[in-house]
Amino acid sequence: MTSLPHVPAERLTELLARMPKAELHIHIEGSLEPELIFAMAQRNGVAIPYASVEELRRAYAFTNLQSFLDIYYAGASVLLTERDFFDMAWAYLEKARADNVVHAEIFFDPQTHTARGVAMETVIGGLHRACEQARAQLGIDASLILCFLRHLSEAEAFETLEQALPWRDTFVGVGLDSSEVGHPPEKFARVFARCRELGLHLVAHAGEEGPPEYVWTALDLLKVERVDHGVQSSKDARLMRRLAQDRIPLTVCPLSNLKLCVFPRLEDHNIRQLLEAGLAVTVNSDDPAYFGGYVNDNYLQTAAATGLSAAQAWQLANNSFEASFVDAAQKRRWRDELDAVFASLA
User: Fold this and answer.
1) Which uninterrupted H or E stretch holds 21?
2) Which of 23, 208, 225, 322 is catalytic?
3) Taking 70 as the threshold, does the pLDDT of residue 37 lie above it?
4) How are the residues of the chain apportioned to helix, strand and coil, as percentages rounded to the nearest 5?
5) What pLDDT is stored for residue 192 in this prediction?
């Protein structure tokens, strides 16, 4: 749409909720709500160190990324069967559809599970079945991105890749997540080169807690197509120009950044600065069960805190389609749907 219709300010909340959007930064293990953790623990006979759902929720007071990851991995310990992985993904996909997510590219961490003796086939089988069923029953397109845990070695990443290759047709790309500081992207340069040879899309977490230099090396050494988070890029003017010029998408997660103390207040988030500098910023939920909101919560709270306009909301949603790993024709169809929602609320 070359010129957006004017959407009255009082309808911005409705617009944010109704507009179609893609979610490109969602860790499926981070969508595991406490109620489901307890249900699976009981189903599988797994002991967890919390007496109730309420006690577990009270533990979600994080001071940094590592304090979150400690609880994140404890929660994932209840995932043992293909049914568990299906149920977890299906619960997320139902919430995503309610938020008018039309496309989701879902991160999963196989090493979190294979280290506990869960077979790769079990992990991928449950997640893939949920994605297939969501297309048929929910009308939401979903694909998988296999992530390597950066606090582990590159040799272990290579081993994980080889274990996953029999199911190569079930995931579209690879990513890099877990503890960022002290684990620069170049640690995984060779495994990413191998994934590029295999025709996989490449993304990586960089510039969440780590410095702008991590974003540079993710781009130049890993040759990623998207940067996950990337909010520290604003500290480097030359990097900002590079990201804008090359239209390298940033999958920004505002409520996650708030919960993990990347920004002291949501009002202090730099998402508007990134947008106004011409970067291909997107809004995502990261680990919604732990960070207080799914994707619409991120749009709504961020808009209220930072004063995002309707035009910027359109840009964020359109960026999410532009940044997705789907064909151009599908991106155009979603943008047409986006334009239709804007026109209906003008």
Assistant:
1) strand 21-27
2) 208
3) yes
4) 55, 15, 30
5) 98
Tokens for 189, please give them: 């340069």
Confidence of residue 185 (pLDDT cuts 50, 70, 90): very high
- Write down the pLDDT at residue 2: 57
Tokens linked to 108: 């999963």
C-alpha span between 322 and 98 (Å, rounded): 22
Report pLDDT for 328.
97
Distance CA 85, CA 49 (A): 21
For residue 300, give the nearest of 14, 98, 92, 101 by alpha carbon. Answer: 14
In 45-60, which positions are buried (b, 16+ CB within 10 angstroms) versus exposed (e)? Answer: eeebebeeeeebeebe
pLDDT at 62: 82
Q: Which of 92, 100, 103, 86 is nearest to 24 (CA)?
A: 103
Amino acid at 5: P
Neighbours of 90 (CB within 10 A): 19
- Tokens, residue 31: 């969508």
Supply φ then ψ for residue 222, to 5 degrees: -80, -25
**Closest listed residue to residue 75, CA positions, set 96, 95, 53:** 53
Q: Would residue 267 show up in a list of annotated catalytic residues for this protein?
A: no
Cβ of 329: how many Cβ atoms within 10 Å? 7
pLDDT of residue 4: 86
User: For the whole model, what pTM was predicted?
Assistant: 0.96
Read off the pLDDT of each residue in 178-192 and give the average, rounded to a whole number: 96
Q: Give residue-wise pLDDT tens across range 206-257.
A: 999 999 999 999 999 999 999 999 999 999 999 999 999 999 999 999 999 9
